[in-house]
Write a structure and sequence with these properties.
The complex is a heterodimer of chains A (387) and B (110). Chain A has eleven helices and 20 strands. Chain A is an alpha+beta fold. Chain A has an eight-stranded mixed beta sheet. In chain A, strands 9-2-1-13-20-19 form a six-stranded mixed beta sheet. A three-stranded antiparallel beta sheet of chain A has the order 3-8-4, with no helix packed on it. Chain B starts with a strand and ends in an 8-residue tail after the last helix. The chains are: A alpha+beta (387), B alpha+beta (110).
């Protein structure tokens, strides 16, 4: 009883691959070296926020994936605390208003329409916003939030219910290859697993897994910080992001200064999630940095002065898989028979997990792909290979 | 290693008297029954129980319940308590007001 496919990684991407493959009747075996959602999937916000996505591939994947999240059953939605929600994008100073308008224009061109708001309209929607916030925009009908750990767990549970084996605390130690480089099995700390197909969904650690078969998967860990506050009532009503978010994501951090951009999000439990930061300064070290924590706190208080006395109960950082062009790799590896790659989603794993799992499932089962070829080429591994 | 789990292979976890009323995590109001359900679903460590139930995610960050959860895991899995993996501690150790964190930068904290 060998599995058809071994998925390496129990984050949201591995979970989505397991789910969509299981739906097709494929026999899946998922291995995770820690517990489910122990990496970046357990250290994020869990929101789908179209206006924060870069127009182009990122937004295309987001739109396709948001539709898939919407299609899950009411039962699944309840379990993962999934809700559709209006969101606000705000700016901290008048100089940034132009950037906000540009962002609205760029997104409208791709079919995501936000509405520019006067300060007065903005305060009606979000009465505790700082009075000197010069403007913002509302996006209605596009976005959603969920509890990302529960989402990852629920999808692996669902795959398991369809027959998948989910093996936690099991680390991959090597891959068995035939003479022509095709996969024949996966060696793990719990023993070997014979299989002809492997999906590398190991997030920030995907490069290390690729090395086991001589495959260069250009992924580096990009750290992201989050703060969690005590549960509060009636202080914040929307997911509020600072309009500089896209610029922050796009900024490559060759400098020593981490990018910080304010995000304030209310969760089902009443706790606020505060973000966000991006840096590659600490390599694989996931510990939090006091300066970055402080900058996130300052940003939250700047937009919501009412939060000054709210208690922060927890902080953490996640290592997100970052590709050179900030776009994921969803591809079959050339010259390595049976190797598929699904990684590089950076901070968008929850958002674009379902479309990723669906595409991987379509590739493996030989079905027609949900995205046209010219889009798939932008997700290929070969785009990074010189030649 | 006993924590290696084939999820769903599952611990049968018998029902315990009063498990629905017995609160393990007071901050998040998580009952013993919910902890047992998480173990039935495949949780083997305090971190996994936390992620499935929110036990330990509240204001006190599990100062009391993390030990209770360890004890329940040890009991249900038939392991010595020392073998149950403890949960991750996250800063801050005590709740801190946002304004205090926000002003760290001004004091040039490294």
């Amino acid at each position: 009883m060998y599995p058809d496919v071994v998925i390496i990684g129990g984050g949201i991407i591995g979970a989505c691959c397991a789910y969509y493959l299981s739906l097709e009747g494929v026999k899946v075996y998922l291995v995770e070296r820690d517990h489910i959602a122990s990496g970046a999937s357990g250290a994020g916000e869990g929101n789908i926020c179209h206006e924060a996505m870069m127009p182009g591939m990122e937004l295309t994947l987001t739109m396709a994936s948001a539709a898939l999240w919407d299609q899950f059953s009411p039962d699944m939605h309840r379990r993962i605390e999934y809700h559709k929600a209006d969101t606000l994008q705000v700016v901290g100073c008048t100089e940034h208003l132009e950037g906000l308008e540009q962002n609205l224009e760029d997104h409208a061109r791709e079919g995501v329409h936000g509405t520019l708001l006067s300060p007065k309209e903005l305060f009606e929607l979000e009465p505790n916003l700082a009075r000197d916030v010069p403007g913002g925009a509302v996006f209605s009908g596009y976005n959603a939030h969920m509890q990302p750990m529960l989402a990852t767990i629920a999808l692996t549970d669902a795959a398991r219910d369809m027959g998948a084996v989910v093996r936690t605390f099991t680390e991959v130690t090597g891959l068995q290859l035939s003479r022509d480089g095709a996969v024949e099995g996966v060696n793990t700390t719990s023993g070997p697993i014979p299989t002809r197909i492997v999906v590398i969904a190991a997030g920030a650690w995907s490069h290390r897994v690729g090395e086991m078969l001589g495959l260069d998967i250009p992924i580096v860990p990009r750290r992201g910080h989050m703060l969690v506050t005590e549960a509060v009532e009636d202080l914040v009503f929307h997911l509020v992001t600072e309009a500089s978010y896209i610029a922050t994501v796009e900024e490559t951090d060759d400098s020593t200064k981490p990018n910080v951009c304010t995000i304030v999000e209310l969760t089902d439990s009443g706790n606020l999630l505060l973000g966000s930061s991006r840096d590659t300064l600490a390599g694989f070290d996931p510990r939090v940095n006091a300066e970055i924590i402080s900058a996130i706190a300052a940003g939250a208080v700047r937009f919501f002065p009412c939060l000054r006395e709210v208690q922060v109960i927890r902080s953490y950082a996640g290592l997100r898989p970052c590709s050179p062009d900030l776009t994921p790799i969803i591809d079959r590896a050339e010259g390595h028979g049976g190797v598929y790659i699904a990684t590089g989603h950076e901070g968008n794993g929850i958002t674009t997990g379902p479309i990723t799992g669906k595409l991987i499932s379509e590739m493996i089962t030989g079905k027609e792909l949900s995205l046209p070829d010219e889009q798939m080429s932008k997700l290929s591994l070969s785009r990074f290979q010189a030649g | 290693m006993s924590r290696e789990s084939e999820e769903g292979a599952g611990c049968a976890c018998e029902r315990h008297e009063g498990e629905d009323e017995l609160l393990i995590c007071r901050c998040e109001e998580v009952s013993e029954a919910e902890i047992l359900q998480a173990i039935r679903e495949g949780a083997r460590t305090v971190n996994e129980v936390k992620r499935r139930t929110r036990a330990g995610m509240g204001l006190c960050q599990g100062k009391t319940c993390r030990r209770l959860v360890s004890q329940i895991l040890a009991r249900e899995l038939g392991q010595p308590i020392g073998e149950v993996e403890p949960s991750t501690y996250r800063p801050p150790v005590r709740p801190v007001e946002l304004r205090v964190l926000a002003s760290l930068e001004d004091d040039d904290v490294p």
